[in-house]
Amino acid sequence: MSRDASRRLFLSMTSLMGAGLVWGETAGAAPPSRGKEKKEKSEPAEVNATEDLMREHGVIRRTLLVYEACASQLGTGSPPRADVLASAANLIRRFAENYHERLEEEQVFPRLEKAGKQGELIRVLREQHAAGRKLTDGILKSATPVALQDAGRRQALASSLQAFVRMYQPHAAREDTELFPAFHALFAEAEFHELGERFEEQEHQILGAGGFESAVAEVAQLETAVGIHDLAAFTAR
Ligand SMILES: [Fe+2]
Ligand SMILES: [Fe+2]
What is the reported pLDDT for 10? Predict the structure, then answer.
């Protein structure tokens, strides 16, 4: 490395050190105290609008895993409890359909449509929201102890759960990778930050103060109820 090049490297490293961004590769090396103090005093970074929608997809995907477990248990001699099924379907209704999808339909889709972007994708996404709501109506009707005693209804319920999972996996994946990046690109940073705050307010209005955190706790209970709570059990052997 030339003398000039190593001087430039040294200067850029020291400026990063000053900003508390690099603190060497030594194992266990502590960051410079100035950076640490700054972090302790400042507020944690806020969740932006699309990150918010994506972590909501995380809750929905975990509920889909509960749906999958219920669907396969419905075909065995020990079907899932009706109250567990009803709670999972109610979480989809309350959190996914009445909150998350409504937010997409009221705040995300119209802005993109107005900008002439992602029209065809949004048309399909809207259709899937409607199809999902119909499936949830049926799932809620069949999630009763009486209905679960009937073999035909158990089979129909398993099919509805599978159809919901099959539709929602690609739905959320397209939103994460195509819709939300296109949505983010419509905004200047300050405007996007403000939108994130509005999303947060809407979350608390519709879901209550616990909002996202309560939904995570709820889905964790459902995972325990159907025996899929141990993440390590999913590790490939
Ligand atoms: Fe959606
Ligand atoms: Fe979504």
Answer: 36
How many angstroms separate the alpha carbon of residue 64 from the centre of ligand 2?
Answer: 13
- pLDDT attached to residue 60: 98
Q: What is the pLDDT of residue 77?
A: 81
| Fold that domain 51-227 belongs to in CATH | Four Helix Bundle (Hemerythrin (Met), subunit A) (1.20.120)
Q: State the distance from the centre of ligand 2 to the C-alpha of 211, rounded, in angstroms.
A: 16
How close is the Cα of 234 to the center of ligand 2, in Å?
25
CB 217 within 8 A of CB 61: no
Average pLDDT over residues 33-40: 46
In residues, how long is the chain? Answer: 237
pLDDT higher than threshold 70 for residue 123? yes
Which residues neighbour 79 within 8 Å (Cβ) at sequence distance 6 or greater?
73, 148, 154
Identify which ligand lies nearest to the alpha carbon of 172: 2
